[in-house]
Write a structure and sequence with these properties.
Layout: H1 10-15, E1 19-20, E2 26-27, E3 29-32, E4 39-43, E5 49-57, E6 60-69, H2 74-89, H3 94-112, H4 115-126, H5 133-151, H6 161-168, H7 176-195, H8 218-221, H9 235-244, H10 248-259, H11 263-267, E7 268-269, E8 274-275, E9 282-283, E10 288-291, E11 302-305, H12 308-315, H13 338-347, H14 355-367, H15 372-378, H16 386-391, H17 397-413
Antiparallel strand pairs: 1-2, 3-4, 4-5, 5-6, 7-8, 9-10, 10-11
Length: about 425
């Protein structure tokens, strides 16, 4: 039986501290406070204090936590300890009772976990796997717009094929690419829920061997949409006019075209607070722009050979600190999406900025003898042929340098003498 002591007052309890060993080492102290036999105040070297009720339950010695001090006062701790004592006398084990209550709570949570809750937890857990914040936002947006309004409040353990069809039927043939992403994300969330015990392992959102028997494949429905591009034939006239325009936005667009780059690589992405090209990425001596892996679409560093005009554009701009972006808006911030589009609008050109990459690829394919691998590397595309990609380890920088020089020459001067109906004398010089 616990030793009975004289009850301590609230002031005396407040003064209790941790213990010190003979060697001078601090350690946790357990102080009997009286009032109820077995009631102790634990004090750690850090100063944290908590209540413990020590008793024998059946044949087991139990240390039952009653809460922290001073959140649980001395009087309240004595009331709790007395309650525990009475329950033990009635044949109840408070520790086992708590464990059972926790098991019941978990059981209820497993039964009531909704799709919305599961999706939020999945996205939170997978956040580190996303390439950037925008990818997370896209995930959340598709869930919020297409899934939660229909099955967001449905417990994941109850979700079956009819629920999946209720989400996908209205959008599968209307916005196929989006619908395909939605299906994949539902599958991932339900898979996560199954692993964590919130539902059975059967996944009604899986494609292979299940939904592919119900819906036509996305590939068969997908309508190829091209970015509206200026024609290759009109590029020389356009570029001559662009070259005459003043302003950093026009220079940024001209630089983008000459390097066959993407918008975010040149001017950044204001939505993600990510800057575009900086002076630290430029080697004016070697005429190389190295885009860091963290900023490039493939996740690998990408070298871009700079033509003479591209270098000249950079030299026309004020030199800033190495970590500062080269192209900024008028208030020295990351430009918005309309920064480059506005140049085209003022010129009366009905084309997209991304469409200039299409024009570059058309020129490479139709008017030069360069191997496809060279233009694909220039555009930063990865080779979809895994075997070929494993052997093609070089980034073909020398061939790409000549390619970009020929592209610059064409952009301002047009075609040289044609040697056949489709291929000019440009390219293929080893």
């Amino acid at each position: 039986m616990p030793k009975k002591i004289e009850p301590l007052s609230a002031v005396e309890v407040k003064r209790l501290s941790h213990a010190i060993s003979k060697d001078g080492e601090p350690y946790n102290a357990l102080h009997p406070v009286g009032g109820v036999a077995g009631l102790l105040l634990q004090v750690t070297p850090s100063g944290a204090k908590s209540w413990i009720y020590r008793a024998v339950v059946g044949t087991k010695r139990r240390n039952i936590g009653l809460g922290g001090y001073p959140a649980v006062s001395l009087a309240k701790a004595r009331d709790k300890a007395q309650e525990m004592r009475e329950r033990i006398q009635q044949g109840v084990d408070p520790v086992e009772q708590r464990k059972e209550a926790r098991r019941e709570l978990i059981k209820q949570q497993l039964a009531t976990m909704t799709f919305k809750d599961a999706a939020e937890q999945y996205i939170k857990k997978k956040a580190k796997d996303f390439k950037n914040d925008r990818q997370r936002e896209q995930w959340q947006s598709t869930i919020d717009n297409y899934v939660n309004p229909i099955i967001g409040k449905t417990p994941v353990r109850e979700i079956e094929l009819p629920h999946i069809k209720a989400v996908l039927d209205p959008i599968w043939e209307q916005v196929t690419e989006t619908a395909s992403r939605v299906r994949g994300r539902i599958e991932n969330v339900l898979g996560w829920a199954a692993v964590h015990g919130y539902r059975s392992a059967e996944n009604p959102a899986r494609w292979k061997g299940f939904l592919d028997k119900i819906y036509p494949s996305p590939a068969s429905l997908k309508e190829v949409k091209h970015f509206k591009a200026i024609s290759v034939e009109t590029m020389p006239q356009f570029m001559q006019e662009l070259k005459q325009r003043r302003g950093d936005a026009a220079k940024a667009l001209e630089f983008l075209i000459l390097t066959a780059s993407r918008t975010n690589e040149v001017i950044g992405d204001k939505r993600l607070d990510k800057v575009g090209i900086t002076w630290a990425e430029i080697d004016l001596t070697k005429k190389i722009w190295t885009i860091p892996a963290i900023k490039y679409k493939t996740g690998k560093a990408h070298r871009v050979p700079l033509s003479d005009r591209a270098i000249a554009i950079l030299n026309e701009l004020p030199r800033k600190a190495d970590d500062q972006p080269i192209f900024t808006s008028t208030n020295n911030e990351i430009p918005s999406d309309g920064y480059l589009r506005s140049v085209l609008a003022r010129m009366g050109v009905k084309a997209t900025v991304h469409g200039f990459r299409s024009a570059f690829k058309d020129w490479c394919s139709e008017y030069t003898a360069y191997a496809d691998e060279v233009s694909e590397r220039a555009m930063g595309h990865t080779d979809k042929n895994a075997v070929r990609a494993s052997y093609l380890r070089s980034d073909l920088i020398d061939k790409r340098r000549q390619l970009m020089a020929d592209w610059e020459n064409y952009c301002y001067n047009g075609h040289p003498v044609t040697v056949s109906d489709n291929v000019t004398a440009i390219g293929g010089r080893g």
